[in-house]
């Protein structure tokens, strides 16, 4: 089972991803985490990543795909993967599709956390004023939000056309969002992943 979590910064993707990892044993593939892990590992690929990052350049999509392939092959027995931070563009989505297809896999569900962006900005601004965290700087956050909207918007209709896209109200409580996500996954039961979901959710319909 392969899931993509979509949502702007501060929408709660990280919280939900960690829950799915803890409760269901998914493997979370976060672009940032993979890059840091590769660099620390000191492998040939990790050295390439380190050289690129040290030179101030952006790591190419090809290298990110290599990192994803490495993780897919390392965790072949995992019940599922969560893609966090990738794909962000149409070419990246196409590359991910090709990588999964070559392994007899596909994106099973794209879960979008729908949030009110003005409320998010207010939340971040208040937190910045109270705690002074650099990553909560409202101006920086707004730029990240604009980038998310510009890059991600073209992907949503693609996955919607494939009937992969599920919309979840990200403004509700963590527990309610969790329940909505679990409901999305449970509704996939009865399709090609029936055995997987029967095991997780306790029986089939």
UniProtKB/TrEMBL annotation:
Compartment annotation: Cytoplasm
Transmembrane segments annotated in the record for this chain: none
Region span, NMP: 30-59
GO MF annotations in UniProt: AMP kinase activity
Major subcellular location class: cytoplasm
Metabolic or biological pathway: Purine metabolism; AMP biosynthesis via salvage pathway; AMP from ADP: step 1/1
Enzyme Commission numbers on file: 2.7.4.3
Binding-site residues for AMP, renumbered to this chain: 31, 36, 57-59, 85-88, 92, 133, 144
Catalysed transformations (reactions): AMP + ATP = 2 ADP
Chain positions recorded as ATP binding sites: 10-15, 127, 172
Pfam entry (one): ADK
Entry keywords, A to Z: ATP-binding, Cytoplasm, Kinase, Nucleotide biosynthesis, Nucleotide-binding, Transferase
Quaternary structure, from the entry: Monomer.
Entry remark concerning the domains of this protein: Consists of three domains, a large central CORE domain and two small peripheral domains, NMPbind and LID, which undergo movements during catalysis. The LID domain closes over the site of phosphoryl transfer upon ATP binding. Assembling and dissambling the active center during each catalytic cycle provides an effective means to prevent ATP hydrolysis.
Family: Belongs to the adenylate kinase family.
NCBIfam families to which the protein is assigned, alphabetical: PRK00279.1-3, PRK14527.1, PRK14531.1, PRK14532.1
Function: Catalyzes the reversible transfer of the terminal phosphate group between ATP and AMP. Plays an important role in cellular energy homeostasis and in adenine nucleotide metabolism.
Protein name: Adenylate kinase
Organism: Ponticaulis profundi
């Amino acid at each position: 089972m392969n899931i993509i979590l979509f949502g702007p910064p501060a929408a709660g993707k990280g919280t939900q991803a960690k829950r799915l990892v803890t409760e269901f044993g998914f493997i979370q593939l976060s672009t940032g985490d993979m890059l840091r892990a590769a660099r620390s590992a000191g492998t040939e690929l990790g050295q390439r990543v380190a050289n690129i990052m040290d030179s101030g350049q952006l790591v190419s999509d090809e290298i990110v795909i290599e990192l994803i392939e490495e993780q897919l092959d390392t965790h072949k027995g995992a019940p599922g993967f969560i893609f966090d931070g990738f794909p962000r563009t149409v070419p990246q989505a196409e590359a991910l599709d090709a990588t999964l297809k070559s392994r007899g896999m596909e994106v099973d569900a794209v879960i979008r956390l729908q949030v009110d962006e003005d409320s998010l900005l207010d939340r971040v601004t208040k937190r910045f004023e109270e705690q002074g965290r650099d990553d909560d700087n409202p101006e920086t956050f707004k730029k990240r939000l604009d980038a998310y909207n510009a890059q991600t918007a073209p992907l949503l209709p693609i996955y919607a056309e494939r009937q992969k896209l599920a919309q979840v109200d990200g403004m509700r409580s963590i527990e309610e969002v969790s329940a909505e996500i679990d409901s999305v996954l449970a509704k996939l039961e009865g399709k090609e992943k029936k055995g997987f979901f029967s095991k997780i959710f306790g029986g089939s319909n």
